[in-house]
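Input chain follows. Return structure tokens only.
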Amino acid sequence: MMLNKFYVEQIIRTALTEDINYCDVTTDYLIPADQQGTGRLMAKADGIVCGVEVAARVFTMLDSDTKIEILKNDGDEVHYGDDIMKLSGKTAVLLKGERTALNLIQHMSGIATSANKYAKIVAGTRASIADTRKTLPGLRPLQKYAVMCGGAKNHRYNLSDAAMLKDNHIDAAGGITAAITKLRTKIGHMTRIEVETRNLDELREALDAKADIIMLDNMSPELMKQAVEITAGRAVLEASGGITDETLRAVAESGVDIISVGALTHSVKAFDISMYIS
């Protein structure tokens, strides 16, 4: 797993503390502490599973004696009825960890499934699908990891990764050329500059100012084709804004390099997974 285990455990600890608080009234008063049970997580849809080890860690953090058998790994395709993992241990532990484990694996699998769908739509073109910073606070590493498990790529992880001039930055700095010129005097040689453009005139200005990456914001596929011809490989072109399932293929066929999709993380539908305990 590419995720930092200390980060994952912090997320799980926070989630469990939020959910259990000081006790689980139902489980603690109903189930004997030494009662043993088994459980399984089953897919109830077709898609890409992600967050398997994260979900498993919920139960082993509650009780290190919990036994986990992982049947599907992150990035695997699953179908309705497939078992993802099996568990055995204290029934109370399985019950207490159920909702937290499902919340995490359902959300991550939903992102991976959505990313995979988008990646398949653009297959055969030069375009790659990328996420954005439109993530839930505190969950960004999980969400961006899930994007990669689905076959898409990560945009910058945070504001320190690259200089990205959006319209408000440009307006505040006095224009595209002024903003890029000032940044070049301050950033290190490893930092690249991306500029958001809204029309072909802004694209030409960004090219003249030698931007490394140029975002084509809310442009039509037809306009993007013109932008690709004008750029002629002098900068990486990223399409963004208002892109739907219906327009995605046309955007990819315009010749852009990257298509960033905020919906991968900010409005994804949870993947349907159930846990059965016996």
